Amino acid sequence: MNRIGTCLWNLIERIARFFVFGFLGIFRKELTDGQWEAFMQFVKFGLVGLSNTALTYVVYALLVTLGLHYQLSNVISYAAGILNSYYWNNKYVFQEGEEKKRNHAKALAKVFASYGVTFCIGAVLLYVWVDILGISSYLGPVINLLVTIPLNFILNKLWAFREK
After folding, report:
1. Of 138, 12, 27, 120, nearest to 75 (Cα)?
2. Same domain, 154 and 83
3. Number of domains composing the chain
4. Which of 8, 89, 149, 163 is the most buried (most CB within 10 A)?
5. pTM for the complete prediction?
6. Which domain holds residue 45?
7. What is the pLDDT at residue 77?
């Protein structure tokens, strides 16, 4: 990680530590080092997810505004989001130690497969929101996040970035 990224991440971790340990202190509870690391991995995944969601939605909205059909816009923006997500999750969230190098082709294929599952679910839901329920094509993808975010985390954590 570069120096600015390291400083920013240290600041985020200090803020999280202050609030988490302050909250747990009220109940006289403590986290083990392993629990803290797992929590911070979830925080990193959440931050990557926020940036990924923003990028995907901006690309989607831009393409819809340019006149592309909402489903085609959804496919293109989702592919851009998958590549963005893989890069950041591989580099900062689920990174391997220096002694172990990840098989990037295998990991990227697993990420595309896991996102493919959520894409299919999201595409069906988008059709339901827009064509059946009459919800705006701009709001439909936002509603989909309630399903796709938790599912993506589970698939990435337990399968896509897991070597064994």
Report:
1. 120
2. yes
3. 2
4. 89
5. 0.68
6. 35-160
7. 94
